[in-house]
Specification:
This is Trypsin-like serine protease. GO terms for molecular function: serine-type endopeptidase activity. The protein is mainly beta. 7% of the residues lie in helices and 39% in strands. The protein has 3 helices and 16 strands. Strand 4 and strand 5 form a beta hairpin. The longest helix has 8 residues.
Length: 242
């Protein structure tokens, strides 16, 4: 995948085949050069639509709740997970807090060709759901926001420095028809005040007040690709009804 790396955390056997380390040049960064901040960016005060994904009790990915019983995340975050393996903390910026939910048996639905998954959870959660964008809501040249509980460092294993508090970073859109981890249509962006990293997989990209992407890949330094959900609204509606 050249410089593109998916963003799943290294913990959890279900993700072992998909997870990877930071690029060599990032790994060589001295500890004194690494800011403890997604990487850089800033902490979030409120995100009622946010969902932290756990696999067999281990934090792995980021997600959003888009309807009372439906979570949106990346396909590579849930691939191979058996019934009962997936759980979520929903609606709190602190990944250890929030309303708890688990995936229903057989409740994971993945897209045929894009790095997208929908998870049907075991009960309805009443919160502010992530509003989904439509074609035209994201454009080349825009500054957009990316959210996640992922790694905040490049100098040690990502699981050791994932953020307890949800973070956000601005990135700059360079393409709205590039490729995600599975070859689906993606929004590509360059680093603004931060860049997504391991554990940010499945998290949202917002353009204005609507979600337009799901985190798929990053080189953890300068570029990232988010599955362009504005191109997959028919599929999301057919599964989750929104």
């Amino acid at each position: 995948m050249s410089l593109a790396r998916n963003l799943a955390g290294v913990a959890g056997a279900v993700l072992a085949a998909a997870a990877f380390t930071a690029p060599a040049q990032a790994a060589e960064t001295q500890a004194s050069d690494v800011q403890p901040y997604i990487i850089d960016g800033r902490e979030v005060d409120s995100a009622p639509w946010a969902a932290r994904l756990f696999t067999n009790g281990q934090e792995t990915c980021t997600a959003t709740i888009i309807a009372p019983e439906w979570i949106l995340t990346a396909q590579h975050c849930v691939e191979g997970a058996g019934d009962g393996a997936l759980s979520f903390n929903i609606g709190n910026v602190d990944q250890t807090q929030g309303e708890k939910a688990t995936a229903k048996p057989g409740g994971v639905v993945i897209h045929d060709t894009a790095d997208l998954a929908l998870v049907n959870i075991d009960h309805a959660v009443q919160t502010e759901y992530s509003p989904l964008g439509s074609v035209g809501d994201v454009q080349v040249g825009q500054t957009v926001q990316t959210y996640g509980w992922g790694a905040t460092c490049t100098d040690r294993p990502e699981i050791q420095c994932q953020s307890q508090i949800l973070k956000v970073a601005d990135v700059n859109v360079t393409d709205i028809a590039c490729s995600d981890y599975r070859g689906g249509t993606a929004v590509c962006a360059s680093r603004g005040d931060g860049i997504p990293a391991g554990g940010d997989s499945g998290g949202p990209m917002f353009a204005g007040n609507v979600q337009v992407g799901v985190a798929s890949t990053s080189d953890r330094q300068s570029t990232t690709a988010y599955t362009n959900i504005t191109e997959y609204r028919d599929w999301i509606q057919s599964v989750a009804g929104v």
